[in-house]
Amino acid sequence: MNAAASPQQIENVSTFPPPPPFYKLYLNYDSDIDSTATTSATTDPSTSSTLSEQQSIPNIILPLQPPIPPKQGSNYNQFGQTYSTVDVLPTLDELDMVQLYPKGDIEPISELKKLNRSILFNYLQLLETLIENPSDFKTKVDDISLLFINFHHLLNSYRPHQARETLLSIMTEQIKNRTQSNQLLKKSLETCKESLIQTFNNLNNETEEKEKLSPTLATTTKEQPSTPQTINKNEELVKPTNWLDQLVNELSKIEKPQ
Amino acid sequence: MDRITQLQDKLDDMFYIFGTCIGVLQRDAPPVSFKEQNELSFSQEWGHQIGDMATQVIDTSKLIESYIDSLPGLKKTETEQYENLKSLNSESNDTLKELKLTKSEAIEMLKLVKESIRYISEESKLIEDQS
Questions:
Q1: Which of A68, B40, B52, B92 is the most exposed place for a label (fewest CB within 10 A)?
Q2: Are residues B85 and B41 in the same domain?
Q3: Range of the domain at B52
Q4: Residue A46 lies in a domain
Q5: Residue B126 to residue A220: CA distance in whole angstroms
């Protein structure tokens, strides 16, 4: 190892390197060391119960409070790099690049097509240069590189536009799903109403037939008190067919909710 | 994957194809005579390889152009997009209200069906007892 190596280099080649400096971010390091020391001093390792160990663990590994989110317009560090909260795409001028497409309002599709064809044309020119004068390749390679950078930049500048468009398509899809669910639910409700009415009609017919066959049975059915709650409200329930009328009334109420 | 990312990936592909083609030409191209420069004669295999490389470049370029044509909403302005979003939002709220209304109807119907079942069972039990 070189004697003049910096501490950072020494750290990198160490067999047992120290933990990275950011490990202190995840614990109340100073207070935790104190609590660990207190715990080890007060408890005898041979007689310490499992319960007391479990109780002391949460105090030791208590994490720090997360940092407050950065304010709008400020910068923050993440994995050693500085980021801004305002997400702005730098212009090509700011990146010291030549902008090949016009500034201001442009027709993106035609500009992108122009760039695509220019790339192809410049590639052919590069091949020609490599045949005729191979030493001059650098200029053409730089041109192609600039064309690619412009292409990517123009595409990136339309990412917010695409995000809005994606949101539009998601919302359209959601509305479509809701309408479909609504229609399906209404259809099921209609089927349910029809089945219910049909069932009660059948029951009503049966009761009438029985009435005709044995009048005593009909009289007894009149006496029974256990009718649905909604039907109990009606005083005309003594008639055996009244519950069906009541049900139909209830159904008509459901059809036009207020 | 969104269309812009697909387009950028295809663009990177083309860049890669450019480099590969030049590398292959440099490595495999046969020497050319100084005297008969206008009459280039290649072996059939090498001729095919050149053709394949040219086709690959052209195909990628065409694909990029078709992707450009299919970029979503580039004909709309930002204002138009926001107006569309507003109208869709109100439409979405309306459909949600309608759905909630139908749901409440369905709940009422469920109650009615339960009561009816109870009534029918009690009725049939009574009839059975009497018969």
A1: A68
A2: no
A3: 1-71
A4: yes
A5: 9
B54/B83 same-domain check = no
* Interface mutation target, options B74, B86, B97, chain A, most CBs of A under 10 Å: B74
CA-nearest of A251, A246, A212, A217 to B119 is A246
Number of domains in chain A: 1
Chain B CA closest to residue A118: B61
Task: Domain of residue A23: give its range.
Answer: 16-61
Structural domain count, chain B: 2
B57 and B82 fall within a common domain: no
Distance CA B31, CA A96 (A): 42
Tens-digit pLDDT profile for residues A143-188: 999 999 999 999 999 899 999 999 999 999 999 999 999 999 999 9
Is the domain of B86 the same as that of B123?
A: yes
Whether the complex's predicted ipTM is more than 0.95 is answered with no
Count of beta carbons in the 10 Å neighbourhood of residue B126: 16
- If you measure CA to CA, which chain A residue comes closest to B26? A130
Q: How far is CA A144 from CA A4, A115, A130, A238, in A?
A: 44, 10, 14, 94
Residue written as tokens 């949600």?
B96
Q: CA A241, CA A201: separation in Å to the nearest integer?
A: 9
- Shortest CA distance to A92 belongs to which of A66, A113, A115? A115
